[in-house]
Amino acid sequence: MAAIKEACGLFGISSAHKEPIGFACHYGLYALQHRGQEGCGIALNTEGELSVHKDLGLVNEVFPRALSVDEEHTRMAIAHTRYGTSGERSRENVQPLLFRHHMGSMAIAHNGNLTNDAALRCRFEKEGCLFHTTSDTEVIAYLICKHRLATGDIHKAIELAMDELEGAYSLLIMTSSLLIAVRDPNGFRPLCLGKLDDGYVFASESCALDAVGAVFVRDLQPGELCIVDKADQSLTSSLVHCNAIKSSLCVFELIYFARPDSVIDTISVHQARIRSGSFLALEHPCQADVVIGVPDSGIDAAIGYSRQSGIPYGIGFIKNKYIGRTFIQPKAGDRESGVRIKLNPIASTVRGKRVVLIDDSIVRGTTSKRIVRLLREAGAKEVHLRSSAPPFLHPCYYGTDIDSRKDLFACKYDHQQMMDILDVDSLGFLLPEQVVKLSDHQGIGFCSACFTGVYPTAVPKGASNA
Amino acid sequence: MAAIKEACGLFGISSAHKEPIGFACHYGLYALQHRGQEGCGIALNTEGELSVHKDLGLVNEVFPRALSVDEEHTRMAIAHTRYGTSGERSRENVQPLLFRHHMGSMAIAHNGNLTNDAALRCRFEKEGCLFHTTSDTEVIAYLICKHRLATGDIHKAIELAMDELEGAYSLLIMTSSLLIAVRDPNGFRPLCLGKLDDGYVFASESCALDAVGAVFVRDLQPGELCIVDKADQSLTSSLVHCNAIKSSLCVFELIYFARPDSVIDTISVHQARIRSGSFLALEHPCQADVVIGVPDSGIDAAIGYSRQSGIPYGIGFIKNKYIGRTFIQPKAGDRESGVRIKLNPIASTVRGKRVVLIDDSIVRGTTSKRIVRLLREAGAKEVHLRSSAPPFLHPCYYGTDIDSRKDLFACKYDHQQMMDILDVDSLGFLLPEQVVKLSDHQGIGFCSACFTGVYPTAVPKGASNA
Amino acid sequence: MAAIKEACGLFGISSAHKEPIGFACHYGLYALQHRGQEGCGIALNTEGELSVHKDLGLVNEVFPRALSVDEEHTRMAIAHTRYGTSGERSRENVQPLLFRHHMGSMAIAHNGNLTNDAALRCRFEKEGCLFHTTSDTEVIAYLICKHRLATGDIHKAIELAMDELEGAYSLLIMTSSLLIAVRDPNGFRPLCLGKLDDGYVFASESCALDAVGAVFVRDLQPGELCIVDKADQSLTSSLVHCNAIKSSLCVFELIYFARPDSVIDTISVHQARIRSGSFLALEHPCQADVVIGVPDSGIDAAIGYSRQSGIPYGIGFIKNKYIGRTFIQPKAGDRESGVRIKLNPIASTVRGKRVVLIDDSIVRGTTSKRIVRLLREAGAKEVHLRSSAPPFLHPCYYGTDIDSRKDLFACKYDHQQMMDILDVDSLGFLLPEQVVKLSDHQGIGFCSACFTGVYPTAVPKGASNA
Amino acid sequence: MAAIKEACGLFGISSAHKEPIGFACHYGLYALQHRGQEGCGIALNTEGELSVHKDLGLVNEVFPRALSVDEEHTRMAIAHTRYGTSGERSRENVQPLLFRHHMGSMAIAHNGNLTNDAALRCRFEKEGCLFHTTSDTEVIAYLICKHRLATGDIHKAIELAMDELEGAYSLLIMTSSLLIAVRDPNGFRPLCLGKLDDGYVFASESCALDAVGAVFVRDLQPGELCIVDKADQSLTSSLVHCNAIKSSLCVFELIYFARPDSVIDTISVHQARIRSGSFLALEHPCQADVVIGVPDSGIDAAIGYSRQSGIPYGIGFIKNKYIGRTFIQPKAGDRESGVRIKLNPIASTVRGKRVVLIDDSIVRGTTSKRIVRLLREAGAKEVHLRSSAPPFLHPCYYGTDIDSRKDLFACKYDHQQMMDILDVDSLGFLLPEQVVKLSDHQGIGFCSACFTGVYPTAVPKGASNA
């Protein structure tokens, strides 16, 4: 039940005439809502004219009614869901961003985080450029614009921009005639391609292809650039930035961010989580009566633990699905533990039992502590906590909102202290060497820097590993 | 994945001084949102003055901000969530209803359906009474008012009203000084009592007690009337209408309506559903590779089937929890099957497998047919459908919105036809004689008239069993 | 610039087929918005089925989009704007009220105030009737219902109800087939009749007839009852309750409530206000350089004063028309006088001049005092205040929200004290004997009880003239 | 009753500690709402940090509740109301615009229109700059930024930008420490300075100073640049761009745009309109019984005509002040003339009379035609139309939304044709030589290019006088 946030879901579509673009964008956004709940938006291409519709809020808040679209003439669009970090909720930063220019307008949507953002921004400002947002996406737009002016070609401009960009970026870019998808050479963030009868879909996760009835084709390769031309719905691919090095897919996509029904870089997210449970059962066995998972992302690993260990799987908690963003929090204090509005244990599952509890990760420890207490109050005799992520020890520079080291549970306490604080009978984490084996596909490489401190790229200047 | 609707969730609270009444009502409503999503409301008692706040919409729509309550002087409240039937969405019918009268105002919230509503309403209209709503709850209020005028006593008035009321009714009634809970003598609808440090809570389901940190005390007996006096927070109970006959708890509360973490009439809803899965595995075994449930209420039974049969349990579908009431439906038609926005199968669970699929019920067959098709498209080799409810054959007069016979799947087709239409390899229903054994408590009786046609009360005049 | 409030605007329409009923109701409500800004509503008759749409708020808040109406089958409607008194803003009380009954549903809209409301309500409650609202309109509905049950005839029922009703009531009543308009025998509140090509319109003021392009026919006589039959758009009139006594039109309708472009009981409101200015000039002359009026309702009287006196008319203030109900008030205190957001003087009109200032009335004196100060600050050399209403000395029981005696300026202070407090060089009120001469039509009688204490009906029991 | 639109209202404030900045901005915006109703916004300076709050809509829609401001630390702000042209309603263009830059952020609000906008924008785009808006204000921001980078000084940067800017611009610019006001060297748009006890206010019109209780100091000179330093609330003025040529105040500010209670460039708007009425009475006398004005801006001129001619002034129309932006328009067609929802004549004023009707201008003729028809229907015997603006014959390049020549009434028809179309008995326009005499202050020059075709600056390249 991680509270970690990450940057964004991407959805792009081009269809010659059959697909209702407005509806498709809605469905795509709904399917990717879990990747970003601060804001969302849709940029439309209507006979070459670009327009954008976006705001802070969930999809059903920003688009309470179907977006009115001239379906006959609007045949291309990109859409975006954005995550929210506290204090930075600003309407300006909601994407897609739309830039108007006499060489042609451009809409852009971005998932990831640059590591050389500050340096590039400073350079552009010194050249007299003005920024409207605090987003690194605007930096990407400026880089592309600069090279487009120089070369007169959007494709070349993006390739040249990629030479300068460092860090994590999956991009969707829409011009008056093209839909362009880009994945950074490390492949930090996912991006996949789907086929329609008369066009193409790009999406952060395959579940968004399913949502519009598109057929999954493949993941973009790290460094790949795909272009769909509105004129003839032709697809071209450029592999200039694909290099020999192993990819660096963020392992937390598998553990927590992605939907279990998605397949990312040939890996079924659900199966990867099942595997994490099996690893945990092998590495941290225990004698118990029931295995339960913390909803939603601990459930799959719990099934894996149960299968491997033979201990029966049970449903330990009901999560209230009506609690929305505007939920009025209970006052802090002693009575908090008694109030079980978001997560309520099923006593009949755990009463008098030795319980294995699987959570997706332990970041600050506060949530885990509270959940263990709920189980104790419901009558659990023993609680054996297993985390399907290794301990967080290092900051992330690629778009994941992991606390600074001083707040990280595993940085502050040793194993025994953690057990005491969490009030558990045993505690086990997935090993960092196991986390990169969650895929059953040997060819996929991972970034697990937050666990190991080994970063696949240079880190931002001035960043201390603290 | 029944689309059957039922009437309402009740929550009432009285606390001498500690409990923040406004927050408690919000939490109670959130916990009971699954019982009614058309509208909701809260009636407050502020130093004897009653006021009501309500509207059409979900809890977070009706109360986007915390209801402003004078917490010092507001020490009693009742709240209500209401279900929605098409065409009848009217703000007037949202509860609690508030009636002003020189003998004292009265707020009333109701779960259930009277069977002699029409006759009583007609009688009152002939006496010159005016009705503002189309709800049978207003009839109950008139009956109580009539007897209150005659006797001058609200307790006696309710007892006398109960002599005349027929059908299903769990009630919460609030006057300037009393909080009164009533359960009809058949006990069709649930109602339970919880204890606070300095007061009491009544709720349709125990999960709402958990939500406010109240300690479960017991279910109200069928026919019981409980009164909490604001003056001293004393609780008195009247058993005048409790009779020797076995209770008639609506069995669909266990199968579908209630939350799995609730305990109703001593039965854990989760365990009852697990039992239904075990019965299905015993009665309708099959050779298969994985057991999956249709979310949300088929999940528990699937675990039961898996445990009994030894066939591994798996997660077959992801349900999109962001799809709200305002979701824009895809256009009907061929492409519908390809659009998997609300429910998406996890292909890695079912591809190439023989699948046992557990659903909570099959009403019209259309949803089941679509779900089976999703599994086939995801690569399932065989689909064996099991329903944890018997076939629906008879109308319900107690507040459950079951289709008329001519639309009921099981009334229109024989077993082979059903299998052909649903495109399943085998099909099995829970037996009516098993459905009343879902409780492991011998003393609890059930109404299963919708399966058997045996009604525990007289049916409305003019009602044909069609 | 009176802050006095009064009850409500009425609009009813019946058209065989030409008039778009939904639009007509919107226009009617906009035209009558000045008579009530707390809430508004529309009751529609669609092939005999009644429905109601209403809420708290201004017309453009309650109906931000055009009400969706089946224009072909909806051929009759009544609408209502309601005024707001502090603390009583309740959605229940917004009209039209809709009552369902097996003898036929009935919608009712009411302007005025009964004087025997409490006695009637008590009588009905003792007979077992329940009230949903605190409005006396519900009492009228009960009376009509009682007699309808006894006689089986809605027309007779209303006539019999009128025998029992005391006080002020203009009514519009709609059944499945009839549109009925009633004016109380004293004619306290206005009500007029207009003609469409294929139907009729009733409205509180003739400006609402203009708004829908209806031709003014005549005012209803005090005590008259008009019925339009939907079947053939025939109009019948009953004069049973029309008696010989002189009418008692609320004189404040002319002075303040009504729109200047309305004609009420043959009197042009604009001309009546011009006449009030002429009376003031004759009775309270002064030597001055310019005559100005306080917007909006002092403007006409200022023109009258100017014409009679020969002193030039000028525009002294600009009123900010964008200040809505949600305007955030400045904090009280010294700086208040400097903040001129709602009303700003035009310095060039008054600087160095002797100014005659005409206001419609002086209730508490606070507003007048503030306005005089604005003029002084803008450079006025002398300020001669004239009020086009006599001093308020007595309470109103017919629906006008006049302060209790202890707060009335003219009850608390003598003439010199008033001049001192207001800081004016002279002060003059219209005489009570002049106020009944505002009409140039001899046959019209007025209620001016708030000035004279002479009430045209019995006053409510227990009411002290305080 | 011109439908001509113009660009925007400006309000800026700096106060050491006394003035509540949030409230002041609300009041300023309300006072300037008439200058722009498409959108509005407020930029705050909170201890040097800039933030902006803005949206499409009226002030009470964008700020339904008081903007939450840290009043202690927020001591400087600028605010803006924006006008709406059809088809261009975009949230991006709502001001103030906020630009973030490492040299310091900058908020900017603009009233007017550049004539060399396109050339400047193109130049910047070629240098690699990206534009978020279609507004020429962003061009101004880029110019300032360019020079700020070069000089490192915001004051010098603005002066250098003014060397390159052509056309109409009144500006408010806020940095982390300064509030800067600029008026273009022609003085097309107004801008004035007011004094608070502990700070300063700038506003487009003096009525906004009144709204916050500021004391009017003076108008900014054409070409003047004023800087208020937050550190010590000191005011400095630069006259570098003030030149000897006569100013070019848009004469339509006096005729139509400004509020009558404002004083612009020493001219009372109210008095200027009175003077226009006097000129009309001298130039186009007629024998009539009453003079009326079309609300709101024809009223003052009607009083002037009355005073000069001796014909009595009357109130001819009531304008419905509740009709908002969301008003549902009646369907076009014949019945339109009968529906008098926005503007209703007072029949008693005009029936049987010879009427002089004063309107502020005649652009397309359609509105005037309709108003004359209303008067005829209300019984006017003769209608003599007088326009307090000369005939529109030429386009405006300085921010006023005047129709292209082909739609202008006076370009299409000769005098007799106009009279026939409008159905008036006589027709008279203010003379172009009179329009520049509306001020009684000899030193003020005007732009009246729309009447004369004589433009005070070079016109945009490619602009044909059509």
Structure explained in plain terms:
Four copies of one chain form a homotetramer. By secondary structure, chain A is α+β, with helices and mostly antiparallel strands. Chain A has two domains: 9-245, Glutamine Phosphoribosylpyrophosphate, subunit 1, domain 1, CATH 3.60.20.10; 270-320 and 341-452, Rossmann fold (3-Layer(aba) Sandwich). Helices cover 27% and strands 24% of the residues of chain A. Chain A contains 15 helices and 23 strands. In chain A, the strands form six sheets. The first copy, chain A, has a seven-stranded antiparallel β-sheet. In chain A, helix 3 packs across helix 4 (136-151), helix 4 packs across helix 5 (154-164) and helix 8 packs across helix 9. Chains A and B meet through helix 1, helix 6, helix 9 and helix 10 of A and helix 1, helix 6, helix 9 and helix 10 of B. Chains A, B, C, D: This is Amidophosphoribosyltransferase. Chains A, B, C, D: GO terms for molecular function: 4 iron, 4 sulfur cluster binding; amidophosphoribosyltransferase activity; magnesium ion binding. Chains A, B, C, D: One of its GO terms (biological process) is 'de novo' IMP biosynthetic process. Chains A, B, C, D: It holds the Pfam family GATase_7. Chains A, B, C, D: Mg(2+) binds at residues 297, 359-360.
Characteristic terms for this protein:
homotetramer, 466 residues, alpha+beta, Glutamine Phosphoribosylpyrophosphate, subunit 1, domain 1, Rossmann fold, 6-stranded antiparallel sheet, 15 helices, PRTase_dom (chains A, B, C, D), iron (chains A, B, C, D), glutamine amidotransferase (chains A, B, C, D)
